[in-house]
Amino acid sequence: QIDACIAAVNQVLKDPVTGGLRLNSDFKTPLLQMGRAFSFNYGDKENGAVFSHMVVLWMSALYRRRYSRAAYEVFKSLSGLALHSGQSKIFPGLPEYFNAEGRGRYAYLTGSASWLLLVVVTQMFGVRGTYGDLCLQPQLEPEQFNDRHEASIETRFAGLTLQINYLNSERRSAEHYAVSRVYCNDRPLICQINDSGGAVIRREDLKALGASTLRFRVELN
């Protein structure tokens, strides 16, 4: 079903001009019985625009089902619009929606940017809590690593600053790697590897390290 959903979204909702994922297909005629949204010109507002929050939710759903490649393609479709100021006519950022011309509208009327950051941190980079403990379970694709095969993120957890550096020396895709070793402040760290290949580190073990900033090196194999 997930594969069928992805194929349908890409076939029916992907805009060949902007590359964005539209909210709905073109019904060709006003549908007042469905509400005012379907009286707008197609590509504006709720009628066929690229609505940021729905795209982020779709990306989140794919990451949560570990369809990392499909999720990353969705991320690129949105970030490509958000960062292309020459087309969007706004400063780089995530507005409420992009119209048929790729122009960003209502930059002040959106919570999508916050949701996007949440998905990037907790799903793409895989840094999140699980029953109070820390889980490191990235779903980064090979092209997201630099020429040293590294990808890094800094965030907060349990009052601590975490500087996390993932190493994907074999440049594998997310479906083909798991966490193999974790080092913290240059020392090996004992952790549990869950069924999905992520590392779970007990909260009390982090606190016991006695440092406010923890530097992680996480090897993926």
Helicity range of the residues? Answer: 25-40%
The count of β-strands is 12
Sheet with the most strands?
5 strands, mixed
Major sheet strand order? 6-7-12-8-9
Mean pLDDT: 95
Distance between the termini: 29 Å
Query: What is the ordering of alpha helices and beta strands?
Result: HEHHHEEHEEEEEEEEHE
Give the count of helical stretches.
6
Radius of gyration from the CA trace?
20 Å
**Which band does the percent of strand residues land in?**
15-25%
Instruction: Determine the structural class based on helices, strands and strand pairing.
Output: alpha+beta
* Shape verdict: elongated
Low-confidence stretches: none
How are the elements arranged and paired?
Blueprint: H1 2-12, E1 50-51, H2 52-64, H3 68-83, H4 85-88, E2 97-98, E3 104-105, H5 112-124, E4 127-130, E5 133-136, E6 150-157, E7 160-167, E8 179-184, E9 187-188, E10 192-193, E11 199-201, H6 203-208, E12 213-220
Parallel strand pairs: 7-12
Antiparallel strand pairs: 1-2, 2-3, 4-5, 5-11, 6-7, 8-9, 8-12, 10-11
Helix pairs in contact: 2-3, 2-5
